Amino acid sequence: MKRVAALVFLLAASVALPTLWNGFVYDDVLLIVDNLRVHGLAGVGGIWQGSYWPAGGLYRPLTLQLFALEWSVGGGRAGTFHAVNVVLNAAAAVLTFRLLVRILEPRDPRAPDSRVRLAAGLGAALFAVHPVHVEAVANVVGQSELLVAICALLSVERYLHWRRSGERGLSRSQRLALAGLTLLGILAKETGYVIPVLLGAAELILVRSNTRTRGSVVAPFVWQGSVVVAALLWRLTVLGSLAGEQPSPALQGLGLVERGMAMLAIVPEWARLLLWPIHLQAEYGPPALALIPALGPRHIAGLGLLGLAIVVIWRARRDHPPTAFALLWILIALAPVANLLVPTGVVLAERTLYLASAGVSFGAAALVHSARPLLRRIAWVGGLGLLAGGVLLTLQRQGVWQTQEGFFERLVRDGPTTYRAHLVASRYYYGEQRWPDAEAAARRALDLHGADPQVHEHLGQVLRVRERCDEALPILDAGLRLDSTRTTLRSRLIECALAQGDTGRARSAAEAAVRSGQSEFRGTLDRLTGRPSTR
In the prediction, which pLDDT does 377 show? Predict the structure, then answer.
């Protein structure tokens, strides 16, 4: 068993090894390079008493604390951060193997038979080389995904072992250990809140016990619930709110039912990325993925896939628990990014599928283990083919995250009809003062999806700094009509109006802001009207 685990570790580390030469790319720049809190160990207070993003909304102090430690150890070199990601990814693959052994061999997991070891090894190997993991491993900020996955996999593996080892339930130290892992997962990323639910799924589907031992399982979940409540209160104390980050523009204005309807269109894309990730990209969204609260072909397909998964879980829960658990794991792991109870800042991101992909590995191993001899041979051939394909795709994709310039050039090629790909590329070009590229990308984003005021705001700014306010004004004005609360957008409109000598337009914009309660424009209005400042 140790030999198979070592091979899985080496495989996962080997396919991730090219990332050691990657630099800081995309969100790494804002969260690490430009974030003074993680430039050493002196900023502990700011890490644990502040938000993850500078703009607030998320609380991931454990991840930031590890960034600070890695910065101190490696002197701010990107290679140190990437080396940690390589090790964490390999550790997650080994834990996948260990959990698979628990799932497939409930009788005596200390000495699993060769068929169990081989099936579990294949499942863990598929996890190790899954191409959808590249974004979480090759980009430093994906470290939060790796930490949550490790906490979740270890928690469920230990829970199954301890539950099957004693008739009287878990000891106090075991309950404390599981509660600690859940807390660590939550402090690494909000996805950690699903760990108690995964433990509950393991108890219901995989643990075979009588009524007396069922009663003894209540205590661990009381501890789990206490950790969740404590973490929420802690977050509320620090951030002053339980709300998450600013919702994705594609989801703004949609209620719970409407978001649920719209997200059905994402379900087929989740399935594709988990089962057949031939094409990968760093940004997803409209118009390539149209999020509309009405039934269309994608929505119907998503509803059908969800219905099929639920039916299989229900039918397999008794006769084939590993299959039921694999599907249930996927659904639970996807719940935090389903934008139902809480809308998030993304509609789809490959890094958020890291934990869910473990369920795919569980399902593949269960299929190989339980199939009849002929079908098992066919499954092995297919599994080895997928393994080879996964290695090639993963190695090819690692280089996309090597440099800033290469990343953004590839980003727009991978997602030519995704407006955010062009928008974030334009922001990068803007920072590099590549004005023609910044304008072209921003105009492409506007053509693709003019309903996002951020696009108007950014394109207007590109034109403004190039002293083309005559072109910027109608674009900024259209953005304000979409969202009149955007302070920066209104400020740029006023600045452009004044640059054009249109004082009346600037005054009108300031008056509208003050009437709507934006008091920060009171001083601007006073200056434009010639009145003494009332601020």
Answer: 86
Assign residue 50 a region (left: φ > 0; alpha: ψ between -120 and 50; beta: otherwise).
Answer: beta
11: left (phi over 0), alpha (psi -120 to 50) or beta: alpha
Is the model's pLDDT at 55 over the cut of 90?
Answer: no
The per-residue pLDDT for 109 is 52
**Rounded to whole angstroms, how far apart are CA atoms 131 and 148?**
19
- In percent, how much of the chain has pLDDT > 70? 96
Dihedral of alpha carbons 63, 69, 71, 74, sign: negative
Q: How far is CA 437 from CA 45, 262, 264, 354, 388, in A?
A: 40, 33, 35, 33, 38
Q: Which residues pair with 418 in a beta bridge?
A: 287
Q: Where are the domains of the chain?
A: 2-400, 404-529
Mean pLDDT over the full length of the chain: 92
Task: Using the structure block, give the residue that is written with the tokens 């249930």.
Answer: 328
Q: Which pLDDT value is given to residue 215? A: 57
Rounded to the nearest 5 percent, the helix, strand and coil shares of the chain are 75, 0, 25
Question: Collapsing DSSP states into helix, strand and coil, what is residue 287?
Answer: strand
Spatial separation of the C-alpha atoms in residues 383 and 401, rounded to whole Å: 28
Contact 465, 434 (CB under 8 A): no
Please check the confidence at residue 453 and state whether its pLDDT lies above 50.
yes
User: Residue 181: its pLDDT value, please?
Assistant: 98
CA distance 256 to 387: 39
Mean pLDDT of the 231-255 span: 85
Nearest to 123 by CA among 359, 390, 389, 361: 361
Name the CATH topology of 404-529: 1.25.40
